[in-house]
Structures are given as C-alpha cells and as structure tokens.
Amino acid sequence: MIPNLLDKVWIVPALMASSFLIILFFGKRVGTRATAGIGIVAVSLALVFSVCVAGQWINRVNNPPTGAKLAADVVAANGLTPQTGPNIIGEIKATTTESGETITSGTEAMASSESGAMSEMSAAEMATMEPSASESGAVTTAEHAATTEGEHASGEHESVPPIVRTTTWFTVAGINFEVGTLLDGLAAMMLITVCIISLLVHIYSTEYLHGDIRFTHYYAFLSLFTASMLFYVLSSNTLQMLVGWELVGVCSFGLIGHWWEEKKNTDAALKAFLTNRVGDMGLIVGVTITFFAAGATSFNVLHINEYALAGHANTTLLLVGALCLFGGVTSKSGQFPLHTWLPDAMAGPTPVSALIHAATMVVAGVYLIARLYGVFFTGLGIGSSSLHYVAFIGGFTTIIGGLLAFVQTDLKKVLAYSTISQLGYMVMALGVGAWTAGVFHLFTHAFFKACLFLGAGSVSHACHHTFDMREMGGLRKKMPITHATFLVATLALAGIFPLAGFWSKDEILAGANAGQQNAYTLMLVFGLITAFLTAAYMGRAYWMTFWGEYRGHAHPHESPKVITVPLVILAVCAVLFGFTNFPTNFFGLHLPGGVTTRFEHYIEPTFAFPPLQHAEFTPWLAVVSTILAAGGLFLAYQYYEKNRGPHGLTQRSRVARAGYTFLENKYYLDVLYTDIIAADTKGPLARAAYWFNMNVLDGVVNGLGTGARRIAGFVYRDIDQLVLDGIVNGSGSVSEKSGQVLRHVQTGRVQQYAAILFAGAVVLAGVFVFVI
Amino acid sequence: MKDFLNSWGLSLAVFLPLIGALIMLLIPKAREGAHKVIALATSLVVGLLGVLLLTNFDYDKSGTLQFVVDKSWIPLINSRYIVGMDGISLPMIALTLLVVPLCIIYSWNHFPEPRNPKAFLILILILETGMIGSFIAQDLILFFVFFEVVLLPMYFLIGVWGGEKRQYASLKFFLYTLFGSALMIVSFLALYFLSDKVDVGGVMMHTFDMRQLPALATGISTGAALWIFGGMFMGFGIKVPMFPFHTWLPDAHTQAPTVGSVILAAVLLKLGTYGFIRIAIPILPHAAEKWAPFIGVLAVIGIIYGALCCLAQTDMKRLIAFSSVSHMGFVMLAIASLTSFGMSAAIFGMVAHGLITGMLFFVAGSTKERFHTLDIARLGGMLKQMPHMGWILGFSVMASLGLPGLAGFWGEFPAILSAYNPGGGLNVAFFRVLMVIAALGTVLAAAYLLWLYQRVGFGVPKAEFEDDPHIHDVSFTEWLAWTPMLVLILVLGVYPNLIFKVTDGAVGNIVSALSGHGG
User: Fold this and answer.
1) d(CA B454, nearest CA chain A) in Å
2) Cis previous bond, A82, omega within 30
3) What is the band of A111 on the pLDDT scale with cuts at 50, 70, 90?
4) What ipTM is given for this predicted complex?
5) Residues on chain B touching A247 (C-beta within 8 angstroms)
6) Would residue B496 count as lying in a domain?
7) Distance between CA atoms of A199 and A39, rounded to whole angstroms?
8) pTM of the model
9) Is there a domain that residue B37 lies in?
10) Measured between CB atoms, which of A678, A753, A758 is closest to B175?
11) Domain total in chain B
C-alpha cells in the first residue's frame, strides 16, 4: 500500500532541485555520463512519484471525501493557517453532518436561487474575514463549500477539493504569506506531462549534446528548469506562481544562450528575457490587483478564485486584474503581439526547444489562465459579456502564427510558429469558456509537438546540424523511424482522426461553436481557418524534409536508439492520449460512462470554479475540420511534392509579393520592437537622460560650487582685504573660469567650506526658530 | 551575559573599531601584516559581538528598543547618550557588521594605490564606528555626530585611494552631503526648540530624545512641521540619493576604491533611507503625509531616470552606480507608501541592495584589477576567460534585476505591492499610477543589466586581453570575501522571513501615528 502522497507532492520539485545542486557542485567532477545519469534518475523518480500521485488523485475523485475529512480539506484549501487549523476542524465537526447531507441530497432545488444567495452571503463574510481566521469564518467557509457541493452535485460530478498543504513563508504587516502545494487534477496532469517530456529530453540529450563543451551546464539547467516548472504548477498561491514563472524564464534564458560565444544566440536569449519582462510587468501588477481585490489577506489561488466567483466581486478590478495577468500570458505563451521572442528562442539546443519552448514553459501562461479561471471568467465576463479579449487574442494568434509558418525555411522555425499558433488555440479555448478543451489541447499538444521538435533534432543530427529544409529532402528512406514518428506527430498536429490532435482540436471548435451564448462565431472561424493552415504548413514541412531528392551535402543516416526511442514513445502518446477524453456520443457511438470524457472528469476542477456548460461532440464540425485538414495536407502535397499549383506567384503578382514580404518580415513587429522601441530607449532616450544628468543637474551643482567660490572670493578680495588693508588684492588664483573650478580645488579647502556651511546653518537655524 | 550585553553590548560594538584604530595608530606604518591582522581581528570581534547581540535579541519584542543605554552626555542642551536596537536597526547593523570584515578580507592583497594599509584600514574602522553608531543612536545630536563621522573617512578613501578624478569626486561627495547635513541639523534644532519640554530632574527642558519626540512634536504647527520635514528630507534624500540630488553618487562610486564603493553602496546610502524610517516619519507623521506624494514622484522618476542613465553608460562601474539610483527609488517608493508593508519592504530592499550592489562593485573592482579598464566595449567573454567570475557576475546581475528566489525580488515586488494601497490618507489613484511606472522600471532594470552581461560576460575575450597572463579566475581572498554575500543573497531570496520576521513587529510603530494607518 502506497502512503498518501497527495500532500507530499513537494517532493517532486525537491527531487529535481537536488539533482540541480548535485550536478552544479559535482557535475564537472563525476563526468558527463554520471551527470546525465543523475538527471535521468531524478526525473525518473519524479515521474514515478507523479504517476502515483495521479493515481491517487483519480482514486480521490472516484471516492470523494465526505464529512470531517472534507471539511478539513476545505479549510486547508482556503489557505487558513495551520496553527488555527486543528481547532477550526474541531469546530467544524459539529457542522459536518450537515455538509454531508448537503452533498448526498444535493437536489436541483438546492442548486437554484437559494443556494446562490447562500454562497454569495458566505463569500461576503469570507472576504471580510480577518486573516487570523475567526472560527465563525472557517465554519462559513465549510458551509460555503458545502453549498458549492450542492450545486455541483446536481451537475456532472461531485465536488472534490484540491489537496492544499502550506507553511508560512514570511510575515509582513501581520499577514502570513504562505508557500505550499496545491494538488488537483490539473496540477497532476501537468506533473505527468512535464516529467514524461523532461525524462525523454534528458535521455535524448545524452546523444544530442554528446561532446558539447557545456554538457554539465546544460544538464544542470535542465534539472533546474524542471524543478522550477514543477514548482510553478504546484503553487498554492499567485506569489509563488510568480516566483516559478520567473525561474523558468531564467532557465530559458540560460538555455537559449547555451552557446553564448555567438552574439546571435545571446541576442535571442536577451530578447526572450526582455520580452517576457514586459509581460511580467503585467503579471506583477495583476497579482497585486487580485491580491487586494480579494481582501488583501492572501495570495491563495483558491481564495482569489472564490472571491472572483462570489456575486459581490468588484468586476472592474477583476477586469483590470485579468487584463494585466493576461499581459504575462501574452509574453510567456507567445500571444500576439509579444510572440516575437519564441521563434528566436530556437537558437538554443533542440531538446530545449522541445521541452521548454514547445511543451512546458510556454504553456505556463495557458496554465495561469486555467488556474485563475475564476478571475478571468468574471473579469472578462466569459460567456456573458461582449468583451472577448482573451478569446480574440488567442484566435488572432492562431492565424498570425500559422501564416508565418509558411514562409520559414528553417524546420525549427516552422515548428516554433506552429507552437505560437497552437498556444493561441489553447488561449482561445479558455477565452470562450471551453476550459477542458483548452487544457486538453495543452496536454495532447505537448506530446506531439515535443515529438516534432525532437524529430527535427534527429534530422539535423543526421544532416550536419542544419535545420534548413532546402538542404533536406528524401530523408524518409534514410531515417525510417524518425520519418514515421514525424509523420504521426504531423498528422496529430494537423488534427487527423483518430490521433490526439483531432480530439482536442475538435473540442475547442465545438466549444467555440457552442460558446456560452453562441457569441463566439468569429473564434470558430479563426479555429477552422487555422485547422486548414496547420495541416498545410505541416504538410509543406513534411514533404520538403522527407520526400523528393536529398538536396544537402551530408550523408544522412538514422539516429541511434537513444534518439529514436524517445521519438517512438512520444509518437505513441500522440496516438493514444486523444482517447483520454473520448466523447460521450461519437457519431452515435455511446461507450460506457467509465470510459468517455475521463480527462474532463478527473482534470476539471470542481472547487472554486465557474459553472461551465460543456459542449457536446459536434459531428458536422468534426467532419468539416477533418475535410479542411485533409485539404490542407492535400494542397501541400500537390504544391510541394507534385510541384503543381501557382509556383512563382510571388514573382508575378505584386500583391502576392507584398504579402510574402510582409510575412517574411514577420509583420514588421521585430522592426518595431528592436529597431524602434529598444533602439530608441537605449539610444536617444538614454543619452538624453544622461545628457540632462551631466549638463543640467550636474551643471547646477557645479554652478553652485563655482558661485560659492566666486562669492567667497568677492568677500575675501573686495571686502575683507579692502576694508582691512585698503589694498585691492587682485589675486586671480581664487576666481577661475567656470566649469573647471571644482576639479582644481585643493583638498585643504574643505575645512573652509565646512566652516562656511556651518555658519550658514546656524544662521538659518536661528531664522527658522524665531520666524516660524 | 545578558546583563553585560544590556549595558555594554552596543557601546562596545560602536567603539571597539575605534580602539582597534587607536592601536594601529601606535604601530609603525611598515608593519603591514600587523595592521591587517589587527583590523581584521577588530572587525571580527565586533562581528562576534554582533552575533551575540543578535542571538540575545528578543524577536518577539522587535518593536521595542533593546540593549538600551541612556546616560547623560551634554546636560546643557539635554542631549543624552542613548543607544538601542530594535527590529528596524537590527538588519542594518547586521549588514554593517558583515560587510566591514568582508571588505577587509577583500583588501588583503588588493590595496589600491598608494597602498598604505595602515591609513586605509584605520579609516575603514572609523567608518564602521560611524555606521554602527548611526544605526543605534536614539538621540538626534548623537545621531548627527555619527552621521557626520561617516563622512570624513569616506572622503579620504575616495580622495586618496580613488581613480583619476578622485579629488573632484571626493569634494563633491563631501560638500553635497555636508550641505544636506546642514539643513538636517537645522531641522533637528528647530524640532528641539519647537517641541514640548520634558521634566529633567525637576527642570523643564527640551530634548533630542528620539524615543520621546514623536509624542512631544505633536504640538508643532503644520507649517513649521512641513519645513522641518523638508530640511530632513534634504539631509536624508541627498544621502539616499534621491533624484535630483543624486549626481554626487556616480562620481563618488566611479572614483572610489572598490572597498569604498562597496561600503558606500552597502551601508552609507542606507543611512538616508534609515533616517526617513527612524526619524522623519515617526516624529512628523503628518508632515510625512504631505510630503509623501512628492517623495513618491521623485522615487519613481529616480527608478526610470536611473535606469535610462544606466543604458547610456560605457563604464561598468558607473553603470552599477546609476543602478543604485534606480534601486533606491524602489526603497523610497515603499517608504512613501506610508504603510507598514512598505516599511518592511523598504528595509528588505535596503539589505538586498546592500548585498547585491556591494557584490556587483566587488566584481567590478576585481575586473578593473585584472583588465585595468572597465570600459564595457573592451571587455567581453568573462565566462570564457574567468568562468567563476562570470557566473558570480551573472548571479549578481540576476539578483539585481529582481529575480524571484534571490534577495532583490523581496525589495522590489513588495514595494510595488505597497504602492497599490498607500496609507496615511494618501491619494490611492495617484500611487497606483506610480506603481505601474515603477513596474516599468523592472523591465528597464532587466534591460540594462542583461545588456551589460551580454557585453561583459558572454561572447569571446577581446584580442587585447586574450592571452593576458594577469587575468586569472576568482582568487582565494575573493572567494572568502564573496561567499557570505552570495549565500545570503540566495538565502534571503528563498526565505525572506529572516528579515521580515524582524522588521514586522517594529514597523508598526512608524505608521501607527499616521491618519487611518494602513496595512
């Protein structure tokens, strides 16, 4: 029997953190094999642990807690201090029977207006509750939870509070700020995803970075990254999330700049970090706003979500807060217009691109929305208002990214823009209220995109480290395994039945179609266009790389097992993981309830979470999107493999050429950011500030110094000497020309100045005291 | 033990360095080894004493002054020798006690021209007395004396051991600060004369006692209070330094010897912010409320302006100096928010800035020693040529730009947080605007620091230094001096409660007198 691990998940990031420290301090000494071994062992342990945790979570959802245990979990989840915990739980025991009944007898009536009013009231009390958590407050919390239970019990499944374990981090202004873990289905899913891909990347890298000058450094950062990412997804509060968020950012910086001898790479690293900093500014302000909005007592995620979902929440504050938080999402998850760093980030080693810049770190923004969904839901009025900011940006990004993928000749850049596009998909899904669809896509995308990146790495490994598709071609015979896995992942990304991407993409489209009020038609159009674009550019990349004649100068060969086995595993994931959320009604196929929509059942929160409608599987959409995807692949095949279609259009048509140039220059955003904003800030603006400093501010200071000397000279020369001796002393040594004076002053004069200043001070003091 | 510390602990901590300096005076200049040993031993003994004080400090009562000594000093004006330590001064004292021995260790083989370890070390010990004295003095005149004691040794450190323009820089530093001090002492005197009298052995007299003045100064008219606060603002603001009174700082920093820069950045600047927290705001809370928006604006201008000036620098040390202007802006913004949250953030920011910028100056000094230049354009490839030094610079740069998990973050983020909901009846909307601009400063900070690192740390060494035999990685004494600071930057970043726990109980006293004091 495995002990309860749900409240011990801190071990997972801790494992990776210790791996980082060991590699950092002993990596050089133990050699490369041992270094990689340490990392691999640590991730493997973390993966095993995560799988156990996920199993226990599934078990918990199947057998939800009741009674005293439920109440205790609710108290913990709301971030009440452990010190006050026990006696509160004692108090709660009295009310637990009641709670238990509410759950079991959760009728339709309970879920209606009455319970709504109750939850509103109790939440109001909660918000005004003192940080010390008065007993009544805690009981109210339990009641509130029970009420929420009632609502959900009438819905699809019962409420299962996340497991929250915290300890005091620091105390300021009498408020205890906590650090801890929050484990629910979403977090467990992320643990598994991060650990699987991290493990495969660790293994893959042993070969890919074999003989690299900074092998140890690379593995150290890989471990640190994994630790930070796990820390981030397990965060129980937004402050902690901010910490994890920045730490993954710095690892990304370090790994993009892995080969820092070349300026190109460090430029990319700087660009990534600074673009993210711009978004982080929004995140910092957003975290601040949500903290104060929710009563300025706690950063606890569930507390903030509960506040946001309570009827009395200040929607204006939440709107501003959500928009600011979205600023962070925009940069981290590569949304328009802050996506520009992500393609440049491909300067890092390819396994890093797979792990960090495709599968895990870049979804941190998506995860943020999913985690703080209450804030976004209420703040942006998802499903109720006409403000579709998140959905629109997401949808727009899918198109923007998809179009750019067409004009890339670098295989990794195609994949990078594809990532941007797919991240847009996820954000759009969350924006239209299709929470599960967005998170599900995050999950499936991680595997097939990692597979594609690692596949690209395998190709480049064989082709003299080039990613230029113009120097590839015909590799399918030379690299059969790489080819097969790449093909599977391409089809999955294109959304071809029955691969993973089909299911998740389709759910997003269904979600946009159902919308919360059918108000998201535009997003549906975006989604369908992107379905076509995705298939087409992936087809282009696939045919250019693997078909036709080999155009390069290397002697391509299949990569060793260390590289192909991870590819195969990921390809298998890309095939299978779509079935985790098999629809309840698939073209009339009704599978038993224990098999369908498992992902939704276990992952979607039931606690401090808005009431969402779940879009049903929509047959016509599935058909249309599949036709579009197949059409995209077919056109790409015709154009790039069969060489049919309007080739040379860009030479003939001015419009086409203009469009191509526009895309080639990436919508001129880089020009705007790098050449206009950044260059002007560090050029003219900085110089102007410094000129002001040297000439105006310092000019005044020097001028005062000179003036004082002049006056002193005057006093001495014209008054002192004149009066006492009657001789005009024209000694010029005292008064000198302006500007240069202070530099020539002898240090011995300090005492004179001090004396003058003190005399002045005493006079002033007298004036001060007697005048006032 | 406890009794001994209660009556002698703080006084010994202040005056032991002076005793050490006196002993060194009697030893001939030629015996450099003896001087080094005595100076280091003195600073270590003081440090040990500090550890004793820290362990005997009652952390549950960090709001009350402890180890208080109250003795007659100048009866004529009722100025007394009052010293004590509470949760506000404790972190600053700890920082001072840490930095001084590290500076001495660093100097061991690094004495700048014209060497003369005897004079150099004596000055540092005198500095230590002045710094500790300022942080424990509870009488305005006593505070003023220590505040001024700091000035002279630093003046000589810059003026004698400094760079090419040392005379200009040192004189500017001296006069500028003295100018502020003059206004400050005027304010102190005004405060003395205008506040209510106390009973001293049957005679009613005015007092300089900082513990009593908050209650005694309530009768001062609003207008007078504003002027008095203004005088103190000048005195402390120049020291911080606040925009637009900062221009002495880049010159002083650039010209000062490495150790001078480190002490200047780590401790001396904090005398200004400490003065606001300890003296100006508690004694004249209502004047502080009137001044706070103005201070907030200057703080935020300082953040942005300092950052922009950093971007324009071509000299590594000057860049770090300007970054101080920017970082101290965050501290001042936190103070201007007039919340206990802000005060805690400010104190944390002071310690963090002290450690991080101190570290950056150390690295800059060691770079200068090896390359004989700090011209950024000529440097490059530090990671390649001196991997450890490159990593240390990278670590410090990351800490300085406020990376969470390292100390800098806990000065910056809480400062921004505190500006969201200012206390003292301040205009909330106004401070939120300041908050957003300050947040923009974090972007610029990342820009100038990473840009510096890209040019200095990354890349390949320039041809002129490629085969230079003088360029070696971190030396033993450097490791010895730096490790404690690096470790502290990390430890405080991971567990900020080490400082927040101490300050939290104490800052409440500062804001308690403000109208509608906020959290």
Assistant:
1) 7
2) no
3) very low
4) 0.90
5) 403-405
6) yes
7) 8
8) 0.86
9) yes
10) A753
11) 1
